[in-house]
Structure formats: structure tokens, C-alpha cells
């Protein structure tokens, strides 16, 4: 958790640059945000959208970690990478344009594999956000973050659907709360005047508790009381990646391997034909508008967590392209 000892004094230039945020969040929250060091694992279009938002918000540093090379699929949504950089490392190819967004944020690129990083590596950051990772990788990174008191986020976009998961462990934050109070208005020099009700905004400190990523996997159907179709799709696609190491490609549309993974979840949760339309929909590459929506939610939650301002989302957000709506599920408790 960031505290006042970890925050930096804002320079006059910083105060001018972040004037709107200071007015919205207050000085303490902006100072916490300016002290935050963020790791982004996976620089697809989804990761680029998150990076853009938190860099513009003004964190201390952002590190891109991705060992993969740029492919034609990245042209769908990865706006940091020039078209001539196909074949280059994703993290390194994203660096220049990302840095141009805000010279006051220290941005680094790391082309190592996440599996080659020891658990201690994640402890140098305040926030770790993992994308395009397998279930095994997400569990391991989340566990390392918990052991070192680092806030953990995970998420993905597959075609037109996506999710965001948040584990802030025990998180303290400040919420603006409206309250009413009676005030007396003096009249004509009389000792007693008229009373009226005024609304004031006060800051209240609150605490929320979170569960690790592995707790939300295979949630019982009884706990899924809202629109949960994308949760089932999330399990199908994560299980596919866990088994085959990658996501299905456009050339593998409707492949048997994906159908097999889908049939297991459909059978387990007794779904019938409830998600057939989603299984057969566009799950390939990442669509830019969806990266913008889901990445905007992820970035917003990272900023809220780092600044300790406003109530965080707890703990799973899913975006459904069929309804163009997002749903918040609280699972694993």
C-alpha cells in the first residue's frame, strides 16, 4: 500500500499538468498516484489501452513486459506499434509512442519471458497487471504479489468480449460521501434565525477485502446470480490457453479444440445452448473498440487503487458484446 512517505512532492509543472485531477481527487491522492510503479504484462491492444490511460494520468513509472514479436494481428488494436515494426519485440516497439504521451512518466521495456522472472521481481512494483497469461501464470504471479503486498490485476480481450479481475488484498481508500446538516441563518440581528438543511461532502476512510484469482475459477452456479455468459466464456478461453499455450487464431475459427473446451464448461454448468452464439462469435484477435471499453475500466481501477481514492470494483468485470453491457460479479467469497 502506498503511504505518505512513498509519495513525492509535486513540482509546479506537475501541478499545472495534473490540475484537473488535483481538483477531482485532491493533492494526497495525486501524490500517491505519482509515486506508483506499474508493471504491464502483455502488450496487445488491450495492454496498450491500459498503458495510455495510466501514463496520461501520471504514475511514476510503467514497465512493459512481453517476450513476443509483433504480428499482423496487432494491427487490429495495438496503436503504439508502427506498421513497419512487425517482427520486432512488442514491448520495445511500444516504447517510443508510449513515452511521447507523457515525458514525466518513466517507461521501460523488458523483452524477457514472464516465466523467467523470479517471484521477487514483482515486489518492486506497486501494481502488477497481467494479460495474455495462462491460468498457471496468473496464479503464480498473483501469489507472488500477495506475498509482497502488491496490488494485482488480470484481464483479457478476445475479439469482442473481455474481463477484468482485481485483487487488492486488504485495501484502504477514501470515499466522498454527501451528508446533510442543519445551519442557522441569522435574521435582522436577532439571536435566533431560520434553520435550513445544507449538503456537504466529507471524506470517509473505508476498507475492502479481496480474494486471489484462483478463488474465482470454477465458481458454483449458485453464486452466478446475474448475467454470467462471459464468465463461462472466460473459463473456456483460459482453459484453451492453459492447454494449448495460445489463443485460437482466425484461421482456427470453429476448431475442434475450442469446441471441446466449450463442451466441458457447457456440460459442467448445464448451459444447454445458452452460450452457443458466443462460442461461435468472433473470438479472434482484439477489436479496438472493445479494448477501449475494457481497457478503460482496467485503467480506471488501477488509478483508483494507486491513488486510494473512490471505492474499487470487487472483483470481476465482464463485457458482453451481445448486450454491449458490462457486469460486475463478486465471486470466491
- Derived structural class: alpha/beta
Q: Compute the gyration radius: what is it?
A: 22 Å
Provide the residue-averaged pLDDT.
88
CATH class of the largest domain: Alpha Beta
Oligomer classification: single chain
Q: What's the end-to-end separation, in Å?
A: 22 Å
Biggest β-sheet: strands ordered side by side in the sheet: 3-2-1-4-5-6-9-10
Output the number of helix runs.
10
- The CATH H-level superfamily of the largest domain is NAD(P)-binding Rossmann-like Domain
GO cellular component, one term: SUMO activating enzyme complex
Subunit structure: Heterodimer of SAE1 and UBA2/SAE2. The heterodimer corresponds to the two domains that are encoded on a single polypeptide chain in ubiquitin-activating enzyme E1. Interacts with UBE2I.
Pathway: Protein modification; protein sumoylation
GO molecular function, one term: SUMO activating enzyme activity
